[in-house]
Amino acid sequence: METYANALLYAIPFFTGLVLVEVLYGALVKNQKHNVMDTVSSLSSGLTNIIKDSLGLVLVLVSYPFLAENLALFDIKTTWLVWLIAFIAIDFAGYWNHRLSHHINIFWNQHVIHHSSEEFNLACALRQSISNLIGYFALLLIPAAILGVPNEVIAILAPIHLFAQFWYHTQHIGKMGWLEYVIVTPSQHRVHHAINPEYIDKNLGQILCVWDRLFGTFQEELENVPPQYGVLKPAATWNPILINFQHFWRLAKDAWRTRSIWDKVRIWFMPTGWRPTDVSEKYPVSIIEDVYNFKRYKPKSSNLLKGYAIFQLLANTFLLLFMLYNYAEIDFRELLLFSAFVFIGIFAYTSLMDRKAYAFWVELLRGLSGFAVLFRNGDWFGLNSFVSFGSNFMMVYFILSIGCSFYFLLLKKKRPNKP
Ligand SMILES: [Zn+2]
Ligand SMILES: [Zn+2]
Predict the structure, then answer these.
(1) From ligand 2's centre to the CA of 227, what distance in Å?
(2) For residue range 19-57, what is the model confidence (pLDDT) as tens digits?
(3) Which ligand is nearest to the CA of 122?
């Protein structure tokens, strides 16, 4: 976990930097593909995923080392060949895992966050799940285990394989010639994120597109069918934590409400979107029918509120970076407490972006708990040894957060017409 925390110290500024480059490029060529609130929401989603992963909050059903130890029939040495085999095995497993995520109700819940943006840009790549709480991916790597691919090779390749899926989330790169036949390109992945009937659930490959071509899920981006991004049941919130459990919540309500015991059980494993007949008649859920004319989520927000959202994103990113930097120094219980502050912080400011009144109460609760930690320890998890005014700084930050939420939600409500 420590190595992972260290790697993130570089990965976070690197990916955020590239998002910024795309924003600047968009401004330069006057073809901006970002909007402030959506991008803040995407980057915040990335932070929640990092918190979850760096704390190792997952119940691993089967681990790869276990499989490699028990299933290996061959003993291949660590030559270039083993790297190639491992890469193909990971990519093949990734394709089927992705296909499963799109087609089965319960698995869709943990993937929907990635598709929830109605924009398509580099930031949207960082919308990663926190609801993937059960680790079963190793099962899909059984072929690699049988071939004797050592765990070390998988451990090094898996994050590289994940990071390599970042670059193709862009609208600024067109078709790429012969590469379109080998790897997943921006054009192919635009199709994947689109809800047009021609495109939905297509191009499930992660690095190689050969699997899609082989298993019949390939779809080229068509000139006369411009991709429309999002999900058929729009998330309608900037809060990434809520998006992670929206589909689960709908399934749980349906399972509770239906009269059929069999439906209560099978709804979780039925194709994505399947609902028991009795509840779907009684409680209809609307889905987008005309993909070219649907109302995208864009609640009114002043420039001040946008500025505040960026400020909170930066503040929480720095808090998280500080936590990762000190990962080895802070004991696990304190790490949980620290990450709770960031996590709840993200919940609060993204709810504020949604203009939800409870955002103020969440921020107040976080601020008061923050004061309690500061008074108890006289420090903020060792911040004082980095900057002498560390705890004062945190005090001001909490006061500012409470004050601003109060201003945006309660004062603004009385004067809705003022900018
Ligand atoms: Zn997908
Ligand atoms: Zn994607």
Answers:
(1) 13
(2) 999 999 999 999 999 999 999 999 999 999 999 988 888
(3) 2
